[in-house]
Amino acid sequence: MIRLKDHISDFFESMGIDNKTRILIGVSGGMDSMTLLHLVHNLGYHPEVAHINYHLRGRDSDLDQQLIETYCAKSIIPLHISSFKLNTSEKS
Q1: Are 5 and 43 contacting, i.e. CB atoms less than 8 angstroms apart?
Q2: I want to staple 17 with a disulfide (CB 3.0 to 4.6 A). Which of 12, 36, 39, 58 is the partner?
Q3: Which region, left, alpha or beta, applies to residue 55 given φ > 0 means left and ψ of -120 to 50 means alpha?
Q4: Is the model's pLDDT at 3 over the cut of 60?
């Protein structure tokens, strides 16, 4: 975990991002994006979260959104949510 934290810090530093810069992170609610959000926040950066709920997995999509909302509220992280219902019955 320490190597991952060092890698994130080194990457942000190479991009000129310091701990005063707001960072927008797209979060799906899956383990990868939630871990990234947790690490970035705990490293002292100031993330904001963008989440799009496409409602493709029924209740599971809503549970992902709820997880993100709860985490951001507890961590005092700004959250931006969009919701779209895609017409998946059309053939391309």
Answers
A1: yes
A2: 12
A3: left
A4: yes
